[in-house]
Amino acid sequence: MDAPESPQGAPGGLTVAYEDEYLIVVDKPAGLVVHPARGHREGTLAQLLAGRAAGGQDPERAGIVHRLDRDTSGLLLVARSDAVHGSLQRALARREIVREYLALVLGRPRSLTGTIEAPIGRHPRIRTRMTVGGNAPRAASTHFTLERALPGVSLLRLRLDTGRTHQIRVHMQAIGHPVCGDPEYGAPGALGLRRQFLHACRLAFTHPVTEEPVEITSALPDDLLQTLAAAQHGAGGETPGTGAAPDQAG
Length: 250
Prior knowledge:
Strand content: 25-35%
Shape: globular
Oligomer: single chain
Largest sheet: 10 strands, mixed
CATH superfamily of the largest domain: Pseudouridine synthase
């Protein structure tokens, strides 16, 4: 299904990648918090979508089907009714919604493709972080494919089976290839980045009402494109970071 033009103006300068009477796909910019939380009570995506999004038990997260970290950019799925929200949540739990990301990581995985299967829980000492294992760990699965090998870094395409907090960032740190620019999980300031090089680039799912296939893509934003161009030419010299192989590799 082709993405229709948004019938209303994008709220607060947001880019709406897809919208119909049942759901919205927002192309979230880096720096925007998805919903109110401690330290970020105002100016969130959920508040910008007030009156256009609906569904779920938490009114502060109305319509939000899944979330992205504040400094992760890209596609985010939002429902416009409780029924659609429930349907999309169930599809997510059944792994029927494809979520793909592009990430630039330090070093190069030993395999061109692989799967990281490692439970993620809350860090026992640092409340804002997650870790492999940790407190009350939950199963987590991340698939990766090498898109491009560059001097000292690699561009990966990643697909999530689960949606744990900071999942990609934690899993990439765990195999010795942290996301470039990640201030929490091991590569702050890499290649001059001011945020993690992580972008939600593709969503694909069956429409919960029309049952037609929907596929939305998002190009890398300018800051990440510039970093990728610099990395292509080896700007900043060789970057360290060749680590262990993933738990499972194809």
